[in-house]
Design a protein that fits this description.
Radius of gyration: 16 Å
Keywords: Protein transport, Transport
GO cellular component, one term: nucleus
Order of helices and strands: EEEEEHEEEEHE
Number of strands: 10
CATH architecture: 3-Layer(aba) Sandwich
Strand content: 35-45%
Number of helices: 2
Helix content: 10-25%
Shape: globular
Structural class: alpha+beta
Pfam families: Mog1
CATH topology: Protein Transport Mog1p, Chain A
Largest sheet: 7 strands, antiparallel
CATH class: Alpha Beta
Strand order of the largest sheet: 3-4-5-9-8-7-6
GO molecular function: guanyl-nucleotide exchange factor activity; small GTPase binding
Distance between the termini: 36 Å
Family: Belongs to the MOG1 family.
Number of domains: 1
Length: 178
């Protein structure tokens, strides 16, 4: 599978991503503040979301807040942050550096008794002067009750795709956050 430069929010944001991703808005309604992308050959999803900036001035606390909010919204029965890192933007453009988080959540799906285990990879870009937190989330199911689990080489590829996406994300037009 080849990668391509993906235009998000009408070209206001770009990132390198697999060329075969499916735009979820062609399948269901997606809020204007989100871009949702689906992998055609797995249950992995990518959500790029424009959110109001959280109060914390500590970037690691801010990304953990967004992770905890996701766990709450998904009714997770367990969530754990594995690591938090800063990936500096050394390209020379105005896109903020990414604060990345790797974590695990156990989420009950479709009234099943045993929750799915989801690896959550998150990147936070804090656009302070616009009061915005731009959050990228890769949801990677690693234990499921159906055949949707991602393991081994496929899991490694998903991690590499997240790293490429997070490092390449570029805010092309800050007026998106007006």
């Amino acid at each position: 599978m080849s990668d391509t430069s993906l235009n998000l929010f009408g070209g206001a944001i770009s990132a390198i991503a697999p060329s075969n991703l499916i735009d979820a808005s062609t399948l269901r309604q997606v809020p204007d503040t989100q871009e949702v992308l689906l992998f055609p050959d797995s249950s992995i999803s990518i959500i790029v979301e424009i959110l109001q900036r959280v109060e914390s001035n500590d970037n690691h606390d801010a990304v953990k807040f967004h992770f905890d909010s996701l766990a709450h919204n998904n009714d997770a029965v367990f969530s754990e942050v594995v690591s938090v890192n800063t990936v500096p933007n050394d390209r020379g453009d105005a896109t903020p550096s990414a604060i990345t988080l790797s974590g695990v959540q156990r989420v009950p799906k479709f009234n099943k008794t045993t929750p799915d285990e989801v690896r959550v990879l998150m990147a936070l870009y804090r656009v302070i002067d616009k009061g915005i937190d731009l959050v990228v989330t890769f949801n990677i199911p690693v234990v499921t009750q159906d055949d949707g689990a991602v393991q081994g080489e496929q899991l490694e590829q998903a991690q590499q795709q997240f790293n490429r996406f997070a490092r390449s994300l570029r805010i092309e037009d800050f007026s998106l956050f007006a």
